[in-house]
Amino acid sequence: MTAYKIEPELLRGTPRILKRRGSGAFMNGCLFVFCAPLTAIGLVVFLCLLYSTVSLPFQPILPAQVTSRKRLKSAGDLTCYMTYKYRYNTVWLHNRQIVSLQDYQTTKVGGSVHVKRLPPFRDEQLLMPNGNAYPSFSALYGPRWYITVMLNICFATFLWASWIPPRRRKALVEHGVPIEGSIYAKTEGGGRSTSYKIHCQYVVQQARKMDATIQKEEPHFGTMEVSNAEYKAAIKGGAVTVLYDAQNPKSSLMGIGF
């Protein structure tokens, strides 16, 4: 249940269409405009990454030759580099890769290695004669999958939050069934900023599943966050107007400030 500023005349009889936008419409619109293209880009990157991962075993392996080796020692750690060249179509390409000390010692300058190119990101793996690959599959794809999945989840969540809930609230304001509820509790939350909440109950007449001609009273409960003034004005047992969805009575809005 969500608090919503509702025109008082909408609560008399069948609600009429709301002419004005609800609170937060501008911010929700900005959030949607910001997240929609990012979600689309994230989806494209996800599909490219999926294609690259699935096609990895089927990529051609190209012969390469080691052109130089280098060892660097920094803060007690030894890093071994190996530079190699290979021919791709009609172009000679050069690259450098970090390898283990064992592969560094066993592979001399001029030695033969292999390279596997990974589309569509133009990455490549250096394949050693003993079967080692640099970078490894987990090192190459692990961080990318993690970042891509997390960003897609975040953007999709923001996109959903900026589109679906506002639409539901608007539908309730325009077409919801008005009913009177009662306040049964008030709570005040602490933290950095104090929050004020009002808890209410409303009863809806619903048809029984076995016999639609028999009506039963079904209680529903909801909570809304209000301002300090509204919190002080509300009293336990006081009336509050609720707009609920006739198809799903649990989905509702409270009208406040009347």
Describe this structure in words.
The protein is an alpha+beta fold. Among the domains are: 60-129, OB fold (Dihydrolipoamide Acetyltransferase, E2P), CATH 2.40.50; 176-255, no CATH class. 32% of the residues lie in helices and 39% in strands. The chain has helices at 25-55, 101-106, 137-175, 228-233, and strands spanning 2-4, 61-74, 77-88, 91-99, 112-118, 123-127, 133-134, 177-189, 195-207, 215-226, 239-244, 252-255. The protein has a six-stranded mixed β-sheet. Strands 4-3-2-5-6-7 form a six-stranded antiparallel β-sheet. The longest helix is centred in the middle third of the chain and has 39 residues, at 137-175. The chain starts with a strand and ends with a strand. The model is unreliable at 1-5 and 7-22 (pLDDT under 50).
Task: Summarize this structure briefly.
With 258 residues, the protein is an alpha+beta fold. The chain is built from 4 helices and 12 strands. It has helices spanning 25-55, 101-106, 137-175, 228-233; strands spanning 2-4, 61-74, 77-88, 91-99, 112-118, 123-127, 133-134, 177-189, 195-207, 215-226, 239-244, 252-255.
Overview features:
single chain; 258 residues; alpha+beta; six-stranded mixed sheet; six-stranded antiparallel sheet
